[in-house]
Design brief:
Belongs to the SsuE family. Isf subfamily. Pfam families: FMN_red. This protein is an alpha/beta fold. Helix content is about 35%, strand content about 20%. The chain has one domain: Rossmann fold. The protein has a 5-stranded parallel sheet with strand order 2-1-3-4-5, sandwiched between helices. Strands 6-7 form a two-stranded antiparallel ribbon. Strand 1, helix 1 and strand 2 form a beta-alpha-beta unit. The longest helix has 16 residues. The radius of gyration is 16 Å and the shape is globular.
Amino acid sequence: MDRDVHIAAVCGSLRDASATRLALERALEAAAEGGATTELIDLREYDLPTFDPDRDREDAGDAELLAERLREADAIVLGTPMYHGSYSSPLKAALDYSGFDEFRDKTVGLLAVSGGAFPVTALEHLRSVCRALNAWVLPHEVAIPKSHSGFEDGEFVDPSLEERTATLGRRAVQYATIEPDPDSFEGDQNVGAEGK
C-alpha cells in the first residue's frame, strides 16, 4: 500500500449502551491492527434533520460534514440495529444525505444487530442501498442476534462472533482499494444520488 487506508464506521444506533457501537469498535480495532487509520462516525454527534430534497445539503445541519467524512474514507462500515425488519432511521437520514460522491466504487462492509433473531433483512436492505450508490459491498457481513446477551462488560460473549466482526474490519482494509467494474444496474437508475 502506498499510503494508509482510512476506514470509517457509521454507527446507526443512538442508544447510549449500544451493541452496534461496541461491535463497530471491534471491527475498527481489527482494521487498525491491519494497518488502517480508523474513525467511528457516531450519529449521536451529528445534527441530521429528516431529508428534504428541496433543502441544500449545506443548509441541513451537519449533513455536509458527514458527507465530507464519508468522502475521506477509503472504505466504510455501516452498522445498524434492526428496527421493524430494516435498518435505523438515523442511518437512513445519513444515507439520504449521501450520494455517488461518497459511495461510488467504495468498499462497504455491513453489520447489523438485533435483540431477537438474526437481522438478515436489515443487511439485505443496506446491501440494496449500497448497490444503488454503486458501492462495492463486501460479501462477508456480520449479523448479531440476541444482542442483550451478546455482550458482557463491553466484550463479546461468543468468541466466534467476535472473530466474525474482526474479520469484517480486516476485509474492509484488504479490499479498500478494489476497483469494481462494471457499475451496478441499480446505480444507473438512481437519479436521486446525483448532485448530492
